[in-house]
Description:
By secondary structure, the protein is mainly alpha-helical. It contains 7 helices and 5 strands, in the order E-E-H-E-E-E-H-H-H-H-H-H. The strands form 2 sheets. It has a 3-stranded antiparallel beta sheet, with helices on both faces. The chain has a two-stranded antiparallel ribbon with strand order 1-2. Strand 3 and strand 4 form a beta hairpin. The relative contact order is 0.10. This is Twin-arginine translocation pathway signal.
Amino acid sequence: MNDTDISPSGPAVRGLTRRGLLARGFAAGAALVVGAGFVAARDAAWALETTALKPETMATLIQMARDIYPHDRIPDRFYAVAVKGYDSADSAELIEQGVAALNQLAQSRGFDSYLAAGWEADRVEMLRMIEHGPFFQTIRAGLVTGLYNQKEVWPVFGYEGESFSKGGYIDRGFNDIDWL
């Protein structure tokens, strides 16, 4: 079987079969699996459907988000949620062009794409080269709220949420930060 198989409902369907998904997911230690209209985690139970952006573009954004704000203790699914907002018709052109330019930069450095650059240091070096452009600034600015406003991420940083309703921070752990 290949990526164009007969679906249980009838005619040939262009896309990724379950077998193809599993084969791609376990190949070469890939962190993300890219399929027709989706990005999925290889080692976790989440997937992200794309509508306006190519799945490869979304996978690049997830890796880019991780490289801009690296936190080893935060799973990729939170980065995926943070960049999901860019999957809209309003921002698709800027994002697709930005990722294409980033991939061209990667190719000029000997990689097939930004995602193919296996070392974080190589990817960060490429990001530093584009950090003043509108594409990078748009992604970076959106990540500040997109990533850190997720309540499920707060415990990783020891943040308990707003404190006003509980009497304020002075009487509730003002000096108990243990992760710095």
